[in-house]
Every structure is written in structure tokens, then in C-alpha cells.
Write a structure and sequence with these properties.
Number of helices: 14
Shape: elongated
Number of domains: 2
Number of strands: 17
Helix content: 25-40%
CATH architecture of the largest domain: Alpha-Beta Barrel
Length: 406
């Protein structure tokens, strides 16, 4: 299907250009377009036109209509003493800016935003992430989530790190945003899901069934990722009730109908979904009420101030009241002190995680090692059913990858 997508986009670009223009696929899901005798305004206008043309490309996947979108970066020649390679790099910079600004749009390169140093840094980051994927150096960590009343571990959040060849551990803060910008985040999400589900199965087989929560990027949310998770879980024989997928509050806004499709599809298969970072965005009450979420995680910016900000305490109390009214359990992350922990108990927060309770630790694959730090009997939480001058283009395609990395 990826090949069909690339071919269809290529044909659509070719039909939308003059005979004097040039279009070429330069690798993966990227195309370069050269417009002759065109001003910067002409180039930007043509890029917008081509994006609209690409949006008309549709494919049928398993009977469902799939629409295509693209982003474009535009650069003009001549620009100072820029070489051909510089010109392409400038278009790349504008492309990444278009993607970061929300995608499905065109951006004209502005020299004030940096030159080759910017694109070189992005290229280095891309090489580093691809190297980690190719050499299976994504490594899982886990952080315990405690019951506020029980003070026992009730579940774990699965976290991802990159382990460099020299053993250095790279935090997600240093690569996730770039992975999203570079269209590599879906590969990371798929690897993490597969590895986490593999551990879930091993734990269950060893008599240690454990609830794991798995984060999914807003860039990955949709039917494709839901189907991947379900098919992988089915193939491994995972109990869906042992898994909770987390999507951020902003994912429900960025992804539009894709978020609803994602949540509903997983819910129908028996998996639970939590809405993460709640309180950081503008999710409508209708989305929270109508989508079958099972848990709500308070945003760190709110939790971190509970011990000293009376207004935030009232806000957190109101959110908990709303969550309880529609049948959602509440999790507070970034709990850093006992005062916050006590307040969470007073307002009915059911679960908590943070350095006050337990730091992230490596997530071993061996069930015997996995069980070494369990300090509580496993309990299932209650199940609640809720009522691109030169332009560079990128059109997403799926590439194969190993299913179950360590």
C-alpha cells in the first residue's frame, strides 16, 4: 500500500505542474519540485496548490477510504552564494517548520531562521534515531504507579530511552520531539508497543500479570496504530485488560476524528485508554464525556503546584469531581512530596506516580527480574464503561520493522 501511495502522489504532482517544471522522488516519501521562471510568491502559491492536489489522492485500505496529506518547504534561487545542496537544505528547513506548525501547509524559507547548521543538526538527529531503531537500541524503562490509599504498586508506566553504543542513556526529552518532526515517531511507538506487550505476556505466563500503561504520540493516533496494537496483542496472546494506552489531551485536538477512531477501536477490543496531561489543553467536555476513556491523568504543571497554590488545588478538585461523575479514575503524575500525596487522597485521586514514590528504572525482559521489585499483589482496577523556487514534499508511507525487539 505504501508503494501505491508513493506512485499516486508522484502522478498527482506530475499532472499538476507545467511541462517546463521538474518533479522527482528523492527518497522514501520525499519529492523535490523545481519551478522555472517563478518568484518566491509563485513558488509558495504553487506549493499550496500541490498540497491541495495531493489531498485529493485517496486509497482504499481494507475497505476504508484513506486520505493523504503533505507538507512543503519552499526556497528560492539565487540566494546569496548558496549551492544546490544549500538550496535543498533550506527547503528542508522550511519543510520541518511546516510540519512543526501543524502540517498540511507550506512555509517559505527565511534566512533569519538559520542555514545549514539547522539542517545539519536535524540530519544528525535523524541519523541517531534511525541508528537506534536499526540496531535495536531503544530500551524500555518503567515507573511504578501507586494506589493513593493502598500505598502499593498497582501498575507501571512504560517509558522509552535510547541506549547509545557507549552505554549512555538518552532521555525522551532529547529525541521524541525531533522524532515527531522527522516522521520517525510511529516507528518508535510501534517498537515500544511490541516490546511492552511482549513483556506483558511474559509476566502473565510467569504468574505475575501486571497492568502496563503505554504512551502513544499524537502523531501516531489513528486506526493504523490501533490495528497494529490489537493485532500484535492478539498474536502474542496478551490479555487486553492488562494494557492501558495513554494519549495526550492535545492528541484529541490535533488528530480530530483519528483520536475517536483510535480510542473506540481499542475499547472495542477490550483495551483501556487514558487521557494524559489533562489540564494542559482545551479538550471539550463533550470529548471527555463521549469518548470511552477509562482514566484521566492530571497534567504535571497542575500537580507540581498543588502543595503551594490554592487556586490549583481547587482546580484539581473540580477536575476530579468531573472525572468521577463520568466514571473515570484519576492518576496524578509528578508527585514530589508527601503533602501533595495527602491532598490527592483528600480529593479522591486513585493513583499516583512520581519521584516521591519511585523513579523510572530499567524494564527487564526476564520475568524473574521483573518480579524482584513487586511489593504488592496485582489487582485489576475496576473496569468502567463510559456512556513546498524548490519545494520538498513529504507524504507518509509505512516501512517494515522488527516486531518484537528486546
Amino acid at each position: 500500500m505504501g508503494d501505491e501511495l508513493i506512485a499516486a502522489v508522484g502522478h498527482k504532482l506530475d499532472e499538476s505542474l507545467r511541462s517546463s517544471d521538474l518533479v522527482a522522488r528523492v527518497g522514501g516519501d520525499e519529492f523535490n519540485v523545481i519551478l522555472y521562471d517563478a518568484t518566491e510568491a509563485d513558488g509558495l502559491a504553487k506549493a499550496v496548490e500541490l498540497i491541495a492536489a495531493i489531498s485529493d489522492v485517496t486509497l482504499s485500505v481494507r475497505g476504508e477510504r484513506v486520505q493523504v496529506s503533505a507538507s512543503a518547504g519552499v526556497a528560492s534561487f539565487p540566494m546569496d552564494d548558496a549551492t544546490m545542496e544549500d538550496l535543498t537544505s533550506f527547503a528542508d528547513i522550511a519543510l520541518y517548520q511546516a510540519k512543526d506548525a501543524g502540517r498540511n501547509q507550506a512555509v517559505l524559507y527565511d534566512p533569519a531562521h538559520g542555514g545549514r547548521d539547522v539542517i545539519t543538526a536535524l540530519q544528525q538527529k535523524r541519523t541517531s534515531i534511525l541508528d537506534a531503531l536499526d540496531n535495536r537500541r531503544l530500551t524500555l524503562y518503567r515507573q511504578p504507579i501507586y494506589g493513593v490509599e493502598s500505598r502499593k504498586i498497582e501498575m507501571y508506566e512504560v517509558l522509552v530511552r535510547i541506549k547509545e553504543a557507549d552505554g549512555t542513556i538518552i532521555s525522551p526529552a532529547d529525541f521524541i520531539a525531533e522524532a515527531e518532526s522527522l516522521d520517525l515517531i510511529q516507528q518508535i511507538d510501534e517498537r515500544v508497543i511490541a516490546a511492552a506487550l511482549n513483556r506483558s505476556k511474559k509476566l502473565a505466563d510467569a504468574g505475575q500479570p501486571t497492568v502496563l500503561t503505554i504512551n502513544v504520540s499524537s502523531r501516531s493516533v489513528g486506526m493504523e496504530m490501533a490495528e497494529y496494537a490489537i493485532s500484535t496483542g492478539t498474536e502474542l496472546g496478551v490479555n487486553p485488560f492488562d494494557i492501558i494506552f495513554e494519549i495526550t489531551e492535545t492528541a484529541t485536538q490535533r488528530s480530530g476524528g483519528h483520536a475517536a477512531t483510535f480510542v473506540n477501536h481499542l475499547n472495542d477490543a477490550g483495551y483501556r485508554v487514558a487521557i494524559d496531561d489533562f489540564g494542559s489543553g482545551t479538550t471539550s467536555l463533550k470529548q471527555i464525556r463521549t469518548l470511552p476513556f477509562h482514566m484521566l491523568k492530571l497534567d504535571e504543571s497542575l500537580v507540581l503546584t498543588l502543595a503551594k497554590d490554592a487556586h490549583d488545588r481547587e482546580f484539581a478538585k473540580a477536575i476530579c469531581g468531573l472525572a468521577h461523575a463520568i466514571g473515570l479514575d484519576v492518576i496524578a503524575e509528578f508527585v514530589e512530596d508527601e503533602e501533595t500525596m495527602k491532598f490527592l487522597g483528600e480529593i479522591g485521586v486513585k493513583y499516583a506516580q512520581g519521584y516521591h514514590l519511585g523513579k523510572p528504572e530499567p524494564f527487564p525482559l526476564d520475568p524473574e527480574q521483573l518480579g524482584a521489585t513487586h511489593d504488592s499483589a496485582y489487582r485489576h482496577p475496576a473496569f468502567v464503561a463510559t456512556p513546498q523556487g524548490t519545494a520538498r514534499f513529504r507524504a507518509r508511507a509505512v516501512s517494515p520493522h522488527p516486531r518484537y525487539p528486546p
